[in-house]
Design brief:
Layout (H helix, E strand, L loop, with lengths): L2 H4 L2 E5 L2 H4 L18 H4 L2 H6 L1 H16 L7 H12 L4 E5 L5 H5 L4 E3 L2 E8 L5 E3 L19 E5 L9 H10 L2 E5 L11 H8 L3 E6 L11 E4 L2 H15 L2
Parallel strand pairs: 1-2, 1-7, 2-3, 7-8, 8-9
Antiparallel strand pairs: 4-5, 4-6
The structure holds ligand BJW.
Length: 241
């Protein structure tokens, strides 16, 4: 491992980082799963049973995301600043399907659970940008098949995206930061243990409250993301962790 690899930072983000931008988390008391059945809207079986309901769920969330009042917050901005100013690589792995990290200026990032502003054709697998409502009537612009377009998101029971690249980065990093995720959903919930098993990287959890995986982290910083993330980034850029 060379010196550059040792300075690699990997950041995992979850819904908590976008909460103060006005987007709901999943498992907080007022979260998405308090209003919708996970089995109905976030599984391939739910989509097969009732595609109209699933399209409605994602259409509503897409419209909220595009709403002018939803903007990146100070935590997204701080992670973009870290990527711009840190001398080594900063690799951001987000479970979020919103585009707030991109809008804040992050470039080296991957959406392991997909992207709300993209759709995919189940017939030809083409992924396309999409900012409108989607329905079962739409026809794939690539293969011409009707009724096979779906949100480009990862539902329960499906394989998250780019796992090989993620595991490689986890094995090489010097710092692993987890921000705004409850640690309920695998494989992301297991990343901290993966990091600890592959080396001596420092691990830190920044969240509103202890996550399900808190005990696996060496350091914990609790508070709203817009406060704790900029402060922690400042600390890293001032001399490390
Ligand atoms: C703040 C804050 C503020 C609030 N500031 N913080 C048994 C054991 C192990 C695994 C399994 C098992 N049974 C089944 C599984 C697998 C399953 C799974 O994990 N199930 C669990 C429920 C047990 N996982 C899968 O099926 C995944 N695929 C898979 O495993 O494939 C096989 C595989 C094998 C080996 C290697 C690799 C793969 C797919 C998971 C797909 C998840 N999809 C969703 C929905 C799709 C996208 C969408 O619609 O948006 O993704 S579910 C939902 O949960 C969404 C999120 O990305 C994901 C994680 O949620 P997140 O981000 O953690 O949000 P919350 O709400 O849970 O937490 C928010 C946190 O923020 C809280 O802690 C708050 O306190 C905090 N917070 N305000 C800072 N202001």
């Amino acid at each position: 491992m060379n010196e550059n690899d040792r300075r690699k930072i990997v950041i995992l983000t979850g819904a908590g980082i976008s909460k103060e931008s006005g987007l709901d988390t999943f498992r907080d008391t007022d979260g998405i799963w308090s209003k919708h059945s996970l089995e109905d809207v976030a599984t391939p079986q739910g989509f097969a049973r009732n595609p109209v309901l699933v399209h409605q769920f994602y259409n509503d969330r897409r419209r909220s995301l595009i709403d002018n009042s939803v903007l990146p917050n100070a935590a997204h901005a701080a992670l973009a600043r870290l990527e711009a100013e840190w001398p080594g690589e900063v690799f951001l792995v987000t479970q979020n399907i919103d585009d707030l990290h991109e809008r804040a200026g992050s470039h080296n990032l991957l959406h392991m659970h997909g992207e709300l502003l993209k759709i995919r054709c189940s017939a030809c697998r083409t992924v396309s940008a999409w900012a409108e409502d989607l329905s079962t009537d739409h026809v794939c612009a690539n293969c011409g098949t009707g009724g096979k377009l779906r949100p480009h998101v990862v539902w329960f029971g499906e394989m998250p995206l780019d796992m090989e690249r993620i595991y490689q980065a986890l094995s090489e990093c010097a710092l692993f930061m987890s921000v705004g995720t409850s640690g309920n959903v695998y494989p992301a919930a297991g990343f901290v243990q993966q990091v600890r098993a592959s080396g001596d990287a420092h691990t830190v959890e920044l969240n509103l409250e202890p996550s399900m995986k808190a005990s696996a982290f060496a350091q914990h910083v609790y508070g709203p993301a817009t406060e704790v993330v900029p402060a922690y980034v400042e600390q890293i850029l001032a001399g490390g962790w």
